[in-house]
Amino acid sequence: MIKIENLTKIYSTGVVGRGGIVAVDDVSFEIKTGEIVSLVGESGSGKTTIGKLILRLIKPTKGKIYFAGREISRYKPLEYYRNVQGVFQDPFSSFNPIYKVDRIFENVNRYLLNLPKSEFWGKVEESLKSVGLNPRDVLGKYPHQMSGGQLQRTLIARALVIGAKFLVADEIISMLDASTRVDVLNILGDLRDSMGLSILFVTHDLSLGYYISDTTVIMYRGSIVEMGDTEKVFKNPVHPYTKMLLESVPTLDRKWKPSEEIFKVEGDVTSFKGGCKYYSRCPFRKDVCREFDGKLSEVEENHWAACILFGGD
Ligand SMILES: Nc1ncnc2c1ncn2[C@@H]1O[C@H](COP(=O)(O)OP(=O)(O)OP(=O)(O)O)[C@@H](O)[C@H]1O
Ligand code: SF4
Ligand SMILES: [Mg+2]
């Protein structure tokens, strides 16, 4: 469905001769039809940049993105956005507070679909129901009369009305309370199963990624450090960064206690140019890691990691 090939995005710093910020650094992965891929990593690791590149909100510095086998820049905007849509963290920012919620649907019909009114509103009601909303609780209301969870579901329904096949969901549940989070996650899972919707689920929360995704991609400073079947990445993590992230997930059955092996870094922790990006934070680092090219190697079927300890050169 979506294929990302050697994608790089360097943001200009605006200072001549200073280079730029490498937000995404030679990233390749694929999202298949009816698959949920979670993109996980700490703040600034490049997750949103990848989402924006897929949504054509920014242009890549290098590399290509394909949708249904065709490079995304070759689609006309209307054709592309009929298929690929995004939902973001703050649902309130997607609505204009002075208009009723209906307006986001009206605009869809005006600019994208041009269906007869009765057919269109029938579709809206159907989509609202498929995300667990009663159309009467949504239509005719102002955004401030609805909860964050209702607004987020309304935005997902909007993507469904459009008939999108691929959804970029960037931290869409971070602002919701715990029980609403699970509801929205379940809706995404149901849409994948019933309609074959493909989703890039961007999150910094590993447990949410585990709950919902088929494939997990772990990013660190613009690069993929580990990816593969979610079960394999979580049950058999091999990259020290993934291990550290997993150790950091709070669980109800234990009080927080750092694992010495994963967190303790001794000696010089100054960073350097080249080599493994995780070097300065890695408890397992060796001199040879300074020469590591950061390429992914296969750990097992459908599971790759970029660490010299696990098959790198
Ligand atoms: N418009 C921009 N101009 C310059 N630098 C940017 C711009 N947008 C993002 N960056 C930088 O690119 C890097 C990646 O940012 P990005 O927003 O993709 O990270 P993220 O993984 O989504 O983080 P978060 O979890 O905080 O949302 C960061 O270093 C960020 O400061
Ligand atoms: S390559 Fe070396 S520094 Fe990098 S994660 Fe692996 S062990 Fe750590
Ligand atoms: Mg982000």
How would you sum up this structure in a few lines?
By secondary structure, this protein is of the alpha/beta class. The protein has helices spanning 47-54, 77-83, 102-113, 117-130, 135-138, 148-162, 178-195, 206-212, 230-235, 240-247, 260-263; strands at residues 2-12, 20-31, 36-40, 62-67, 70-71, 84-87, 166-170, 198-203, 215-220, 223-229, 297-300, 303-305. It folds into 2 domains: 2-235, 3-Layer(aba) Sandwich (Rossmann fold), CATH 3.40.50; 236-313, no CATH class.
Instruction: Write the CATH fold name of the largest domain.
Output: Rossmann fold
Structural class assignment: alpha/beta
As an assembly, this protein is single chain
Low-pLDDT segments = none
Structurally, how many domains make up the residues?
2
How many strand units?
12
CATH architecture of the largest domain: 3-Layer(aba) Sandwich
Strand content: 15-25%
> C-alpha Rg, in Å?
21 Å
Helix content: 25-40%
**CATH homologous superfamily of the largest domain?**
P-loop containing nucleotide triphosphate hydrolases
- Enumerate the distinct ligands: adenosine-5'-triphosphate, iron/sulfur cluster, magnesium ion
CATH class of the largest domain: Alpha Beta
Q: Distance N terminus to C terminus?
A: 31 Å
Largest sheet: 8 strands, mixed
